[in-house]
Amino acid sequence: MSWRGIFTALLLVAVLATGWMRWLQRDREPARNAAQRRPDYVLSDFELIALDKKGQESFTLRAPKLERDPDAETMTIATPLFVIPPAQGSQNQPWEVRSQTGWVSPEGKELRLRGQVTAQSTNKDGKPVSVATEELNVFPDEQRATSSAPITLRQPGFTLSGRGLDADLKANNIALKSDIKGRYERTPR
């Protein structure tokens, strides 16, 4: 056998060995990338009270799990319950907002709630008010909420549905944007 034949055989063995090693390592690379994106902290079964710039309660959060992404400085939350207090001096009850998932922006200025979102409080007359949707964006410092998804708003004797929402939580004022339909129902006295 000539030196060219030996050299070709060695190159072929090297290519096959490199390909084989690369094939064996294919499952390990995604695991390494996932480990690099691990949360920098995880909270389990917790209650957190967030304060605004004036030191007043902005909202309270209860959830079974919260994870913080160290790169984006955002948080993801499993089945959160947000309690947003009424404006000072208001007779209204706090808003209780629940969803399947939650996301909090880096400075905590925006909460994105997704999946079976419900918000409950009382109106100016002390009657219960509930809002149901699949997505809701809450801005706690501004005490407002928005959505572009279908919305159902219920009060005793009245149901209002539509698409999109702008809510002023300070004034307990909720406005639906489009496709609005209302239904009155008799309420027992």
UniProtKB/TrEMBL annotation:
Subcellular location: Cell inner membrane
InterPro entries given in the database record: LipoPS_assembly_LptC-rel, LPS_export_LptC, LptC
Membrane topology of the entry: Single-pass membrane protein
Sorted UniProt keywords: Cell inner membrane, Cell membrane, Membrane, Transmembrane, Transmembrane helix
Main subcellular location of this protein, as a coarse class: membrane
Pfam families tied to this protein: LptC
Family of this protein: Belongs to the LptC family.
NCBIfam families given in the database record: LptC_YrbK
Subunit structure: Component of the lipopolysaccharide transport and assembly complex. Interacts with LptA and the LptBFG transporter complex.
Function: Involved in the assembly of lipopolysaccharide (LPS). Required for the translocation of LPS from the inner membrane to the outer membrane. Facilitates the transfer of LPS from the inner membrane to the periplasmic protein LptA. Could be a docking site for LptA.
Protein name: Lipopolysaccharide export system protein LptC
